[in-house]
Fold this protein.
Amino acid sequence: MKTGLITSDTYQNHNTGDGHPEKIDRVTVVIDNFKKLDNKKLIWKKPNKFENSFLIKTHTSNYIDQVNKSFPKKGYNFLDGDTIVSPGSKDASKDAVGSIITAIDGVQNKEFKNAFCAVRPPGHHAEKEKAMGFCIFNNVAVGGNYLIEKYKYNKIAIIDFDVHHGNGTQNIFYDNEKVLFISTHQYPYYPGSGSEKEKGNFNNVLNIPLEAGTSAEKYLNAYENVLNKVREFKPEFLLFSAGFDAHIDDPLAQLQLSSEDFYKITKRTLEISKPFCNGNVVSILEGGYDLKALQESTERHVDALIEFN
């Protein structure tokens, strides 16, 4: 079987303004690279429309209404200090959510074995009732709730290797025993959460805080704790919050991973989780702000997904 690549042109209309790190080029370099590689084991797909009820499982109706009213007719609007929306952000944010739903459906329907969603805006900082950190809707959390609601899964693991703590995903699933949330991240750092003491109400949260300057070797050693927790939990489906800003070249953080390390992380996780989830894996793009590093790292991440078919 092949690997799905879910993306949409609408990301280009989510304009965050000059000088903002979460810019249009981030997804363009990723998509252009995959087009150039022309790997026949990739199935390209656009996101489908989805029912609003699936969004309401993750965010409150009030918050969704507030966001929908915030999209300006022209210019920009601020949802928080660094989360900016423009007229085109409405379609982009809906398609980012639609991408993970479409990817899950594709895996469930055996259209492809696993999938990567190349989207923006990212999602993992968006809490139940709050936008923050470039994130409007929490894409990966919508995916987790969709797996529970539509496909009746009881054990979902979300692994977040973005350099920033996925506070939004943790907030949404803190008291949900069906979801294991694991985050490796630089700490103390934005957004300030993610200490080892935050364990979830069912011991369903594992935070692995890493100090600035952590080497690739130390990171990969620490990642063994992720794999051990996955073994213990035995997920039926696995979602990646795939941020690539732990790369040594990333301007927003100070961890020291190479592009190749993202291949290793992905491959190890797929191998460990296969006995439980049979390769049911969907990954969605979060951060990554050096364009060359992002292009290389997403390529190697997807290489691991393709090889695992």
